[in-house]
Amino acid sequence: MDSGLELQLQKLRDQIGCKEAHQQQHAAILLAVEETIKEQGATAEPAGYFAALMTLLEQQVGAGSRASPGAVTYVLSVILPHVSAGVLRAKFTTMMAVLSQSLDLASADVALLRSVIACLEAVLLAQDAASWRQAVALGTFKSLLQLSTDSKPKIRKRAQEAASLLLARPPPPAAIHPAAQTTARFVLDVLANAKTDSQAAIHIMQLVRQTQMVWPPSEFGDLCAALMQLPRLNVPFLGTLSFQVLETMFANASESLDEDQFRDILIAAIDLKPSIGDSLASDAWLRIVEKGYVAFASISAAACFQSLPDLVDLILPDIELGKPSTRDAAARCVWALIRECIPDEALASGGMQQLVATLATGLSYRYRESWALVFLLIAALAQRLGAHARPGMDAILAEVAGMRMEADFQFKDEADAVLGAAIRAVGPQAFLEVLPLNLAAGPGQGQGQVGRAWLLPLMKGHIRNASLGFFVAELLPLADRLVAQSQAFTAQGREIEAKVYGALSQQVWALLGGFCNVPADVVAAFTPAFAERLANEMLEVPEARPAICGALQTLLTAVHALAGGAVADGPLTQQQAQAARQHLAQFAPDYLAQLFNVFAQSPGAGRGYLVGTITAFLSVIAPAEINATFVRVCTMLDKALATHKPPAAAELTERYLEAHPPPTAHTMMDLVVVMTPYLDTERLQMLARAALMLAQQNEDAILQKKGYKALARLAEQPEGSAARELVASSLGAQLMAALVESTDVVAAGSRRGRLAVVTGLVRGLADDQLHFVPAMLSEAIVGTKDGNERTRTTAFDTLLAMGRRMQRGGTINMQAATGGGSGGGDAGDCGSAEMAAEKQATLEEYFKMIAAGLAAKTPHMISATIAALSRALFEFHAALDGGFVVDLLGTVLMFVVHNNREIANASLGFVKVAAVALPKDLLAAHLDEIVPCILKWAHEFKNKMRLKCRHILERLVRRVGLDAVAKAVPEEHQKLVDSMRKQQQRAQRLKETGGPRAAPGGALQTGAAAEAAGGKKSLGATYEDIIYGSESELDDSDAEAGGKAPRAKAGRGKAGRPAQQPASAAPSGAWIKEDAEGPLDFLDRKAFTHFSLADPTALAATRRPRAAPKMRGGKLVFEDEEAAARKAKAEAAAAADAGEAEDAGENYYVQSLKSKDGFYRAANQKLKVRKRGGESDDEMDVASDDDAARPADAAARKRGKANNGASLGREFRAKKAKGDVKRGTVDPYAYIPLNPRTMKKGAIAVKGGSKKHKRRA
């Protein structure tokens, strides 16, 4: 029986103890049927359940009972989807006769009708085309249509779901469902009475909207016409729903209508355009137009394009005046019309010019709120027009460029997108004819024109398939003129202008990469003079090297790929690409010589781009030239090695390498490695001898590393290559012997290359060479704990390569394996396994070899061995015997309780892998051993040991269930189980209620639930996910376990508001930005760029650049931004107060009222000062001996204090806490200012205290 059906039946059986009577009836019927099947000796199959239930249903219906048929029908609806289609076809007539008696709407209840609908759905889905031609099938389906308009929502919803599912699955081989005609007529009848019965029309349109079917062509036009009439009835929601239904129907309309019918329907739809203010109806109407015209274009593209300009003109007001949702819908509609409804033959027509002119009106100021959308549409139009964009879009491009050049223009990114699309469409040559750069006076360029230097970085990313000759003829002389101008400014002492023109020259050179991206004129434009110019520029101008090398690499790579048969997406065919490759190959020797010289002179830290360019030239040069060049490089390497001395430590620092080239021997060895894939057998033997010699020396660690890198490049070549054949024939045995002998002289930086060599050799080992695996195994194990991440990755790859080779079988000569030394720490312990003369290569034997490292003396080696075992177990667990895995698991569990955290941490990683990879029954059988071991670290917080234990337990719960894990947990840890159980129940409740945390990512699942979720990706899909992932889940789970909700990050929305606080409506209106040059001329075309929809001062505040770090004593000091902001605010307030005082003049009356110490004129006309006392919040007050016992406020008033210490220490107050000390400023050593007038022979009295609380100062 199907597992899904068994799960449903089990749920029904469990309802026997429910309080609800109908649920008890369901369970009782099922148990009675199962008992009957058991008494008859039949098997519990869906067919047996079906026969018994049908017999029982016939009896109950014949007896006239109402309660029992409902329960029987419900159980039958659960069984029918699992019954074979042949049985349902055979019993179709009988079932329809029985079920039709339950479709009495006057007397049937809701539950019974829903069960009957489910049964009808399952039965009708199983019928073939012949059965659907019977009257009983169509009559039954018509009953479902009637139920889909029922007033009861549950019945109506279930009937609509059944009808839409049946219509979407026509019986093969029919493309249109046999009941589609019946459905269309029923819908037309209901819509005809929409004025009198609008609710039924709404219900039937809901059915049509959710039905994905092909409507019959004979009825499609009438349906669309009927739907078009509904908005005229002015019934709420009916018109909007009709638009949504039309949108659904147009998705498959191309197969149902001819050209004339489609045109008439679209014209009728356009006439129904709703008001712009009605966003719901406007959005639906725009989607109808989009889907309808796209479908119409697939029928007749020319007829569709005829009305396109007028349609776009009709939609543009929605972009201008509509609500945000309407604007987006209108922009999507116009974008789809541009992309799908413009045929290629209409690109140069007059209608296209009308469409361009229509979109150009979107650049006017009245569209300012929608300029971002308008720019998007103009970019799409330019991309669709391609080369035909000129001259029609010249005016638009000039206007967009003028808007872009305004300093305060807010849509520069959108304008750049338009200009970039134009560059891709028409090419840089035609684009610069419309918008010239005007950087330096030259032929055809006038003086005094506005410069457009900002176009250079914009053009860099949008040039493709352009003419290389244009760069040679126009842009290269421009770069020369800019350099000459820079030199002239330098001679005049104008360094700033010189740097600006020098930077512009480099930006021109940066465009060369785009022109080299599959140009059509490679042979004609790449002349010897141009090649020589590039070589000289590369040698003489270091700033231009990256751009030139990148351009050459792009050109060579693209041409080589096209010549080799790659799919051509540019102007070059395969024959033209082959001719271009031959043309470029003649320049390769000279370029290689030049590149080698530049490579030798460049600092070692920044010459990676040179390696890529050299590799690109090696791919097109003749093999004889490569071999000759290699011999010359080897000769230079021999000369360099003869006088080479290892560099000092100071010469290996990063700062030194950034400014100085490496030694010649290092450089020549790098070139040798680059040339390895292109050498023949004889030169490969020369390379192998030189690399092996360098790898075995220990004087220069860098040369040793490069030697291993060359050997790794040899061993990693693909099958069938000359290098691979050389390694397999004679070089392999020599390399293996050399690797075993040189274990003790390996530098730390050479480990990765050495392991890569081992990996390449292991893959090609013969059956009698497997002794190399145990000889190098210990070094691979130690490499898994290396400090370099790439070395660790290579070590794991080596372990897996060894395991795969051992899995293929062979013979291991253990005496030959232990004859050489072994590297790394306690590597000798790995050789203490059984010393048999020969062993058969198996995976179990390989695991035993790795496990020998567990007898090491240092924790480092033991933890590395456990890490190697966990990686191998994850890879090969399916091929291992269950008993062997149990023994291995028991062995590692002994190390889980080890007191050394390094060993225990690695062991927990092994257990985590086992919890994910091993079979569920094996884990369940050994939970009593696994769980107590890992719970030893349940209270250890260092190295996240507690979190790892919790994570392993969660994995075990997902695999075997919470109850099974709880039985293995000791009594002192039962609280943890209770927490996990509560978490599981809470997640289940959230899942049932559709809560935000219903996703299974952080919730615990039982074993059955985890197995049932087979379609979801497992969290432990890779080894890295298991070992290093899922830590964020554990933080949340721990917070929940402690009874606290997980604390979310304090995200903030726009304008600094909290994320959960809704944004207030944006204020309407606009701002005029002042111009420093003078009054704003409203008659100028550029005046609209001075209008802003947002407050310019607020935008300037948000765009304030971050303060640059300051240097103090050679250290970078980052200032506190909040403190700096407060300081600036205080200075601005002080300046404002000073300005107000200065503007006010001597306004004594205001000062007497507002100042802290005001003054007034007495009766004798003398000025007297008024002393105002303020309230104080301080705890301490300064007083003399006589005034100490007085109230602090009275003493303050007597002394004339304006503010009795209320602001003392305020600058040190914390931002959020109640304390008064703030980090990042000077600590307040004294909270009370030492006023000389108060420092008498007195005391500091506590506020409100007596004399006994005084303390002598």
Q: How would you describe what is shown here?
A:
By secondary structure, the protein is mainly α. The chain is 60% helix and 3% strand. It has 59 helices and eleven strands. The strands form five sheets. Strands 9-10-11 form a three-stranded antiparallel beta sheet, with no helix packed on it. Strand 5 and strand 6 form a beta hairpin. Helix 2 (21-39) packs across helix 4 (67-79). The longest helix has 24 residues, at 468-491. The radius of gyration is 42 Å and the shape is globular. The N and C termini lie far apart (94 Å). Residues 442-446, 820-825, 827-835, 996-1021, 1030-1068, 1141-1146, 1173-1207 and 1242-1257 have low confidence and may be disordered.
Task: Kindly list the characteristics that best describe this protein.
3-stranded antiparallel sheet; 59 helices
Brief characterization of the structure:
This protein has 1257 residues and is mainly α. It is built from 59 helices and eleven strands.
Set down the secondary structure blueprint:
Blueprint: H1 3-14, H2 21-39, H3 46-63, H4 67-79, H5 85-90, H6 92-100, H7 110-125, H8 129-132, H9 135-147, H10 153-168, H11 180-192, H12 198-209, H13 217-229, H14 238-250, H15 259-271, H16 279-299, H17 301-306, H18 308-321, H19 324-340, H20 350-360, H21 371-385, H22 394-404, H23 412-434, H24 455-460, H25 468-491, H26 495-510, H27 512-515, H28 522-525, H29 528-540, H30 545-563, H31 574-585, H32 588-601, H33 608-618, H34 623-642, H35 654-659, H36 664-675, H37 681-696, H38 701-715, H39 722-741, H40 751-763, H41 772-783, H42 789-807, E1 811-813, H43 814-817, E2 838-840, H44 843-851, H45 859-876, H46 882-896, H47 901-917, H48 920-925, H49 927-934, H50 945-960, H51 962-968, H52 974-993, H53 1007-1012, H54 1023-1028, H55 1031-1041, E3 1071-1072, E4 1091-1092, H56 1096-1102, E5 1110-1112, E6 1115-1117, H57 1121-1144, H58 1148-1154, E7 1159-1161, E8 1167-1169, E9 1180-1183, H59 1192-1199, E10 1243-1246, E11 1255-1256
Antiparallel strand pairs: 1-2, 3-4, 5-6, 7-8, 9-10, 10-11
Helix pairs in contact: 1-2, 2-3, 2-4, 3-4, 4-7, 6-7, 7-10, 9-10, 10-12, 11-13, 12-14, 13-15, 14-16, 15-16, 16-19, 18-19, 18-20, 19-21, 21-23, 22-23, 25-26, 30-31, 30-33, 32-33, 34-36, 36-38, 37-38, 37-39, 38-40, 40-41, 40-42, 41-42, 42-45, 44-45, 45-47, 46-47, 46-49, 47-50, 49-51, 50-51, ...
